[in-house]
Amino acid sequence: MMEKKSTMENSVKKDEKLYNIMGSEVVDGFTCKPKKLDPEKPIMHFKTQIFMCHDERCGAAHKSENLAADLRELLKDMGLAKGENRIKISRTGCFGACRFRSVANIYENTRINGHENNNNLWIRNVHKYDESQWRALFTALASNKDIDDLAFEQIPMSEPKRYN
Ligand code: FES
Fold first, then answer.
1. Which of 50, 53, 62, 122 to mutate to test the pocket of ligand 1 (most atoms within 8 A of CB)?
2. For residue range 38-56, what is the model confidence (pLDDT) as tens digits?
3. Superfamily for the 48-149 domain
4. How far apart (Å, rounded) are the C-alpha atoms in residues 63 and 49?
5. Boundaries of CATH 3.40.30.10 in the chain?
6. Ligand 1 in contact with 101 (CB < 6 A)?
7. Which of 56, 82, 114, 152 has the fewest CB atoms lying closer than 10 Å?
8. Mutation choice for ligand 1 from 50, 55, 99, CB with most ligand atoms inside 8 A
9. What whole-number distance in Å separates Cα of residue 98 and Cα of residue 75?
């Protein structure tokens, strides 16, 4: 599963037409670009967003070149790619925390239904995770278990006064 490459993670085929995860028909040759653009359409709800560093040093550490796409497939399989507890994966550039690579930031949508205790957590060494560890992380996040109480290595953050 984690080695699998995917180009269709954001779309589904129905009646020979391709639709993105938001239900819009997709432009030929794309997997998520809608044919009809509605500038007022809201972005898709997520409870948790995970920003995955995909820059030079973290990216080189990943076992898969398509880690973000693989994780989206895993989330689909777990039923967490849409709905109330949706977990969104976004790739980012360098966080300036390369020594903790591979690095990911967990952001909870606390304005809607995110879990405050898991908001703005930084986890490290995610390149070492196998599928069962990703499943355990996603399950914990979706069920609002405090990550602080679980065995996911976090990155400490210094006090702001340290640099005054
Ligand atoms: S390359 Fe990932 S934190 Fe720098």
1. 53
2. 889 888 999 999 999 999 9
3. Glutaredoxin (3.40.30.10)
4. 21
5. 48-149
6. yes
7. 56
8. 55
9. 26
